[in-house]
Amino acid sequence: MSRLATSVVLGFHGCSKAVGTRILDGETDLIESDQEYDWLGPGAYFWENDAVRAREWAEDKVTLGRFKEAFVIGAVIDLGNCLDLLVREDLPLLRSAYDDLVAQRNATNSQMPRNGDLPHDAHKDKLLRKLDCAVIRNLHEIIANTPDDAPDRVEPFDTVRGLFTEGAPLYPGAGFYEKTHTQIAVRNVACIRGLFRPRD
């Protein structure tokens, strides 16, 4: 089912200026997120082709007191072997990983994780994606544990890509939302071909 993506895309990573300048200067590596609520599972997160949204995210962290100053890093990303959740053929992999996770939890009599809302999120966007994260983690684990000679073996994914609707409708009755975006979680840092500082 999986296939090599042919595209190279631009991604934008929101962070603090202190960390961002050190990354661009080669003093430290990109920070990979590994939280239980990460929308696309573990990886270094980028907003695809959207420096504005990356800056908004970083500025939100400044407002919350987590960053002193907002910063954005640009990246040239080769998607490589991409679990592309915008493409129909990759979606059954996720459903299969969900079914497997349900069977695991039933066998151990443990609860399934759930997606949830942040207390201050008036739009109920399910920003805490514990279920989705667990399913994607399980898919990566299934692939890692599949023998190399298995006929249905899928190669490990370099990147994961997904579309998220978020925020208020753009206008009454709209199907478009003010913070809708595409994100990429880079699992294989070799797919990041270069980093740059975007123009303001």
TrEMBL record:
This is DUF3990 domain-containing protein.
